[in-house]
Design brief:
D-amino Acid Aminotransferase, Chain A, domain 1, 321 residues, OB fold (Dihydrolipoamide Acetyltransferase, E2P), 37% strand, 7-stranded mixed sheet, 4 helices, 2 domains, mainly beta
Length: 321
């Protein structure tokens, strides 16, 4: 990779919000896929996950995006998504990531697409500081697009209408991004907001309450306290799982030795039934709100998130500027 492009750039992150209208924001579709930074040189493309992993071998159909980009070397922020039977699905992406990369990883019934929504470097120079709307214009002017690459559309001001349309179509939700905002790598601020039909958050599994050999009654969840990187207990989730999902999660957990206690803040008084594990598996949880004590209210399991590092599961309001 050319020296002009920083190798360890992290995507800008968003906080959660309810639907709203504002002439200070643009609104765009939210996609259900893998967040990705595309590093494009004159003769090569590298796809880098939000954790810094190289995704290129898993998605060979996206390895030639550079042919459609007019301002290389460049870095483009976007999302890798999969379509199956005309529907946007997350599971085929997990299948790709878990499989050993090989040359023929292109099932004819699964279409892979890179949706570009921000331009961070152009012709080897950083444009992180310029206003969002100017980056959007440069992106549209610089990307030709093909069957594997599209530029995300957006609207100004009308966030509620776009959100309602997204819900009616069964989509993931929308993003709200403040006009004039710079790109802040790795930062989670109110400049960018994710608006989903159900509030969701990522948490790391810190333990489980066993039920049978291949099932559990619930998972104990934790999140990290910002800069201190201390784990805090945020509750247990016991709904939303199939038995197959339970078995898959259990197979991936690593129990702590009997004499080793978890370093977790705010544990419940009675936690004798919990088998503690190493904080390695990240799950996405739907919830109503955080209680005053810091626990998730009415949590429901949504899915595993193998594209997110456990240390990125941040307790709210601890990482804002």
């Amino acid at each position: 990779m050319a020296a002009s492009l920083p190798p360890n750039l992290r995507p800008m992150l968003a906080l959660t919000a309810d639907p709203f209208d504002s002439d200070m924001f643009l609104f765009e579709p939210k996609w259900d896929g893998f967040r990705c930074l595309a590093y494009v040189e004159k003769n090569m493309t590298k796809l880098q996950s939000r954790n810094g992993n190289d995704l290129t071998p898993h998605f060979p159909e996206l390895s030639a995006l550079h042919r459609e980009i007019a301002i290389t070397p460049a870095i483009i922020d976007g999302e890798i998504i999969a379509f199956h039977g005309g529907r946007e699905l997350f599971h085929p992406l997990l299948t790709r990531i878990r499989a050993e990369p090989r040359a023929n990883m292109r099932p004819v019934d699964v279409s892979i697409l890179f949706v570009a929504f921000d331009l961070l470097y152009s012709r080897g120079r950083s444009i992180l500081h310029i206003p969002l709307q100017e980056r959007k214009v440069l992106l549209s002017e610089s990307v030709a697009g093909n069957e594997y690459l599209v530029v995300n559309g957006y609207v100004h001001q009308s966030g509620v209408a776009l959100f309602q349309a997204a819900v009616a179509q069964g989509r993931e939700g929308i993003m709200a991004k403040r006009l004039g905002s710079p790109y802040l790598p790795g930062k989670r601020t109110r400049l960018w907001l994710k608006i989903k039909p159900l509030k969701t958050v990522e948490a790391v599994v810190i333990g489980y309450v066993p039920k049978t050999k291949n099932t559990f009654a619930s998972l104990a969840l934790g999140q990290y306290l910002g800069k201190n990187q201390l784990l805090v207990y945020v509750g247990n989730v016991g709904t939303g799982f199939t038995e197959a999902q339970m078995g898959e999660i259990l197979a991936g957990l690593t129990p702590l030795p009997p004499n080793e206690k978890p370093v977790v803040q705010e544990l419940p008084h009675d936690h004798s039934s919990i088998i503690w594990v190493r904080p390695e598996i990240v799950v996405e949880i739907g919830y109503l709100e955080y209680t005053p004590s810091g626990n998730l209210r009415h949590p429901t399991y949504q899915r595993r998130r193998e594209d997110i590092d456990p240390k990125q599961c941040i307790f709210p309001d601890t990482d804002q500027p």
